[in-house]
Amino acid sequence: MMEIKVAGPGCPKCNQLENLVKEVVSELGMDAQVSKITDFSEIVQTGIMTTPGLIVNGKVKVSGKLPTKEEITQILTTEAAQ
Predict the structure, then answer these.
(1) CATH of span 2-81
(2) DSSP 3-state assignment of 9?
(3) Which residues lie closer than 8 Å to 74 by C-beta, 6 or more apart?
(4) Each residue of 8-39: b (16+ CB within 10 Å) or e?
(5) Side-chain half-sphere of 15: how many Cα atoms within 13 Å?
(6) Contact between residue 35 and residue 8 where contact means Cβ atoms under 8 Å apart
(7) What pLDDT does residue 82 have?
């Protein structure tokens, strides 16, 4: 199962990223657990300095920008293939 974490304090872009990730996971029928990190000290420990951030299987994939749905799909399908 893929582990996906969205890092952000709850700003609009962070919430949008979480919704997009859940949408892509659902559309692709992936076996993935999507969770959110909102605690700032925990976010910093991941290495993300600007939010929103996307962490897939423990690796930071996006930091400081809202990726498009296509970019999220690309990230998740690439990670699933590994």
Answers:
(1) 3.40.30.10
(2) coil
(3) none
(4) beeeeebeebbebbeebbeeeebebebebbee
(5) 3
(6) no
(7) 86
Whole-model pTM: value is 0.94
Which residues have a catalytic role annotated? Answer: 11, 14
Q: What pLDDT digit, counting tens, does each position of 41-82 carry?
A: 999 999 999 999 999 999 999 999 999 999 999 999 999 998
**Predicted local confidence at residue 23, as pLDDT:** 98
65: burial class by Cβ within 10 Å (0-12, 13-18, 19+)? middle
Which residues have C-beta within 8 Å of that of residue 61, sequence separation ≥ 6?
54, 55, 75, 79
User: In whole angstroms, how far apart are CA 42 and each of 6, 20, 28, 39?
Assistant: 12, 22, 29, 5
Q: Which of 50, 1, 9 is nearest to 29 (CA)?
A: 1
- Residue 42 CB partners (closer than 8 Å, separation 6+): none
